[in-house]
Amino acid sequence: MILSDHSIAEALQSGRLLIEPLGEDALQPASLDIRLDRQFRVFRHHRKAYIDVRESVEDLTVIEEIADDEPFVLHPSEFVLGSTLERVRLGNDIVARVEGKSSLGRLGLLVHATAGYVDPGWDGHLTMELSNVSNLPIRLYFGMKIGQLSFANLTTAADRPYGSPSLRSKYQGQTGPTASRGYMDYSKGS
Asked: How far apart are CA 141 and CA 137, in angstroms?
């Protein structure tokens, strides 16, 4: 079942869920609002002719940072990585789902391509996969509400939560928009 505002507040109080810094009006009827941080990972598509999923893409992207009231302009058909202002830590018996804000979706802003699921045991800032599917550029600002998290309890605590050594979790503890580490799945010993 999806957690209500009452259950989310209990999870925050008990420490099963940590969101920091928690926005003043973040708690919604069945979700928590999350905000956009100031860094964006922008693809430099002129550097390579293609993306090879077996290779690191770290050199294919560059970090752009905006000031407090400076907009980041996301152009039509553009894809960049952003990050949540909040650090999110989930207990071993709770999962989260990232969803967009309706007001932004109505403008053509998508906040995740496929990474909408947050495993139990996760700890770090969430990377947002930002796409503009509208015909006009969209201005994004530091601290704006960018999405929401809904939560659900597991039937039991996970035996191997995210971050367990046997899982080789690639993104545990990340800060800022983190490039794909999928190439690690192809390294020797996988």
From this structure: 13
Write down the pTM of the prediction.
Answer: 0.91
Rounded-to-integer distance, Cα 26 and Cα 125, Å: 16
Cis bond upstream, residue 71 (ω within 30): no
User: pLDDT per position in the chain (190 positions), as tens?
Assistant: 999 999 999 999 999 999 999 999 999 999 999 999 999 999 887 777 888 888 888 788 999 999 999 999 999 999 999 999 999 999 999 999 999 999 999 999 999 877 789 999 999 999 999 999 999 999 999 999 999 999 999 999 999 999 998 888 888 988 999 888 888 888 765 4
Catalytic annotation present for 70: no
Which structure tokens are listed for 125? Answer: 């800032």
